[in-house]
Amino acid sequence: MAQNFRNWITRNTGATPVDILPAAQVDSYDAVVGIRLVNIHASTDIEVDVYIVRSATNYYLIKSAPVVVGGSLELIDGGSKIVLHDNDKIVALSDTASSLDVVVSYVDAIST
Fold first, then answer.
1. pLDDT tens per residue across span 79-106
2. pLDDT per residue as tens digits for the range 48-90
3. Cα–Cα distance measured from residue 75 to residue 72, given in angstroms and rounded to the nearest whole number
4. Buried-exposed string 62-87: b where 16+ CB fall within 10 A, e elsewhere
5. Record: fold of 4-111
6. 42-52 as b/e, with b when 16 or more CB fall inside 10 Å?
């Protein structure tokens, strides 16, 4: 069976929560294989939160994680995966306005 690899890119995320993988993209059971968070601010270290929203409840993947100026943080590495249920979404926010770029890589429709 062919795998449907996808990515979702979010730019200039700030202090307001942003869907970095909206529920509309999670239409079945999907496997997230990578989340890269990049500090794009010119002069400020930032702290980031990333969480899954399922049925209006937040489940944190990371909370208040520091990312230095020009640095990045890979949330999923070493072959790890996160399985999302139908209608889950992943949300991120930074403590600094317009400071965070995010790339989420996932395999679409691993099962229904």
1. 789 998 888 999 999 999 999 999 999 8
2. 999 999 999 999 999 999 999 999 999 987 778 999 888 899 9
3. 10
4. eeeeebeeeeebebbeeeeebebeee
5. Jelly Rolls (2.60.120)
6. eeeebbbbbbb
E strand or H helix that includes residue 75: none
Q: What is the mean pLDDT of residues 15-26?
A: 84
10-27 residues labelled b (16+ CB within 10 A) or e (exposed)? beebbeeebbbbeeebbe
Residue ranges of E strands in the chain: 4-13, 18-21, 29-39, 46-54, 57-67, 72-74, 82-84, 89-94, 100-111
Q: How big is the chain, counted in residues?
A: 112
